[in-house]
Predict the 3D structure of the following.
Amino acid sequence: MPTIKEKSAVKILPIVWQRLVDTGGTTCDRCGTTYEGLQQAVAKLEQVLRPLGIETTFETREIDRDSFTADPSQSNRVWIAGKPIEEWLGARVASSPCCSVCGDSGCRTIEMGNDVFEAVPSELIIKAALVAASELVEPRT
């Protein structure tokens, strides 16, 4: 996993997302909704973090059916600066039955307090990314 790194004066905040993709190139609705949330979050983060000298990168990865069958919790997984999003948020990983592409597998969910998120909303992505980005901001001397 990429970690926070510097590129000359610009600091890089990598966001990585992986999900199950079937042989036809499709993914489930849950992952599709997370992808939309990621796109919205990355666009907002670019605007907010650029003045601080922080550049956000976004990478998507695919896992195949065999990898998914071995460990369904690897699908719809988000890392920010090399750490799983749940670590930045103080959340727990759980699972619930999914649909279509995933079959009846217990797919990854994130639990925060009494809230369960099957798809990761942009607000949670932004919150986790801002916590991660705060580690990049250095005090002025």
About this structure: Strands lie at 5-7, 10-20, 54-63, 77-80, 83-84, 92-97, 106-112, 115-117. The first strand starts at residue 5 and ends at 7. The chain has four helices and eight strands.
